[in-house]
Amino acid sequence: REWRPLIYRKCTDLLWLFLFFIFWAGLMFIAGYAVVAGAAERLMLGYDSFGNICGRKNSPVIGAPLSGQDMTNKKYVFFLNSCNLEMQNLEISSVSLCVSSCPQEQLNSLEDLQGFARINGSSLCVYNLNVSSYTLNPKASELCPTLPVPPSKSFPLFNRCVPQNPECYSKYASALINVVNEMDALHRILAGILAGRDTVIGLSVLSLAFSFIVVLTFTFIRALLIHTLIALVVFGLLFVSGVLWWLYYDYRNDPSTELETEKENIKFLLGYAIFSTIVTVVLLFLILVLRKRLQFTVQLFQMVNKMISRIPFLLFQPLWSFLILMVFWVFWVAVLLSLGTAGSAQITSGGHVEYRTVSGIHYMAWYHFVALIWTSEFILACQQMTIAGAVVTCYFNRNKNSPPRHPVLSSISVLFCYHLGTVVKGSFLITVLRIPRIFLLYLCNFLKQKESACAKCLFKSCCSWFWCLERCLRYFNQHAYTTAAINGTDFCTSAKDAVFILAKNSAKIAPIICFGNFIIFLGKVFVVCFTVFGGLMAFNYHRELQAWVVPLLLVAFFAYVVSQSFLSVFEVTVDALFLCCAIDMETNDGSAEKPYFMDQELL
């Protein structure tokens, strides 16, 4: 085969590109349905018994005369019988209203209710009862709260007026605990994400800052910086593991643990602590074994930086990928929140409104979750192929003093015009391997209640096997993208050619690539460790009614994807550079007729 970047190409893997468009058409249908049928504000802001969401303008519900009101200035949910709440089918039986302020003092009579409404502008009776009629209407006792009304305070998470009277508070908290515990896992997770949404966004930005720090470290790499990075990684691993174990024991020994979300936090913390400890032990062992090759690492990255210096815009490529990922993640979370609250309004006695969850939502949620994995992998794969194409263009250039003009833009145009289907196919294979892992983890978690040690061991072994298979596939995907950038072939042909070349030169290339990728992996661990540590400190201060360990897992995933997006510049450059070297040595012999393309430093 003639290994040269082609000028004239043909489109590859068009069928896979067509399937990806169909898949996204289904995702757009789910997004449209979620926007029409869902209302994430109901979960976050709360709503009254008449279908009005507190803190915003509302559209009327047919058959509910008190719906469709402007509640912009009424942000809190107030229950007329807050001292005697009962739960029926995940609904609190007491009538609820949207009010502008919660009563700070006890109200003992209808006159007190009337005075509170006139002074504070917050009516505590049903909306169709005029303030002046509180003491005149014979049905006022049914339309107004049960007397005496205890003093209450707004609770920040669900914007509820929580009674401060000890007896009423205990009954109120008991009913609220029952509501949260009866909610399914999806709604508890959505509540946690909504409550900690600002923290999740802030931690994602923090992971971006840490990624910049590591990129600068690799750009101006020296032996001292390598030692510093390794020391910080070791400190971060030990510290995060210690904090996770401490939080686990703190939660487990807390006698006030009643909420199902808090029990889920304990289980997740134990899993995180065990996983973090295992990763720490393995990485410390590898660092100890490979510590004598630090000088070799410096030389390796100096060669990579020389290639990047010829294409300086490669360092900006991860920024665009990060922005695209952030836009997609915001879209994905918004659709998930709307999907989790999708339900139809049903009118009950007295003009009250209840929202019933539509069947089939969980299937849409799984489809939506697959879209998260596939699309994120697709965006990262596009970045990998763009970087590989730019490196290939500069490598196979005889005049090193006059590099090609705009190699990054040229690589992007080749990707979008010819090889999007190849990238779709590679990212789909990664997704296919991830889905069984997630399903097996779900089964393993289910079998914890059955106490089947043999089955759990089998499932964990299968999960480990799928993880190893995924890592191998990622490695070959990257080389397949590089080969496609050179020869313009489809995914399967490119993967076959790349495996053939790598197999012939494995003894020379494998140790170099593996050790370089290990240092890059330590950079990713640095970003994830310190981002998770920030998340532990932030979420631990907001324990109430939050499944905050799941948003923390989301933060860890985002941090890893961000670090992968930024550090893949060096990872892809290392892999592409040495694959090009192997191809160069395979097709040339260094003679005057067939000189090498590589620099003398690589020989």
Describe this structure in words.
This protein has 603 residues and is mostly helical. It has 2 domains: 14-32 and 184-220 and 292-602, no CATH class; 46-179, no CATH class. The chain is 66% helix and 5% strand. It contains 18 helices and 8 strands. It has helices at residues 14-37, 40-45, 110-120, 140-143, 166-182, 185-195, 197-219, 223-252, 260-290, 294-310, 317-340, 361-395, 407-418, 420-447, 453-487, 491-504, 506-539, 549-587; strands at residues 76-79, 87-88, 91-92, 96-99, 152-155, 160-163, 343-347, 353-357. A hairpin with a 2-residue loop joins strand 2 (87-88) and strand 3. Helix 1 crosses helix 12 and helix 8 (223-252) packs antiparallel against helix 9. Residues 180-184 have low confidence and may be disordered.
Strand line-up in the sheet with most strands: 1-4
Structural class: mainly alpha
Largest sheet: 2 strands, antiparallel
Our count of domains comes out at 2
Shape: elongated
Number of strands: 8
Poorly predicted runs are: 180-184
How far do the termini sit from each other? 23 Å
Strand content: under 5%
**What's the mean pLDDT score?**
78
Counting H and I runs of at least 4 residues, what is the number of helices? 18
Bin the helical content.
55-70%
Radius of gyration: 30 Å
Elements, N to C (H/E): HHEEEEHHEEHHHHHHHEEHHHHHHH
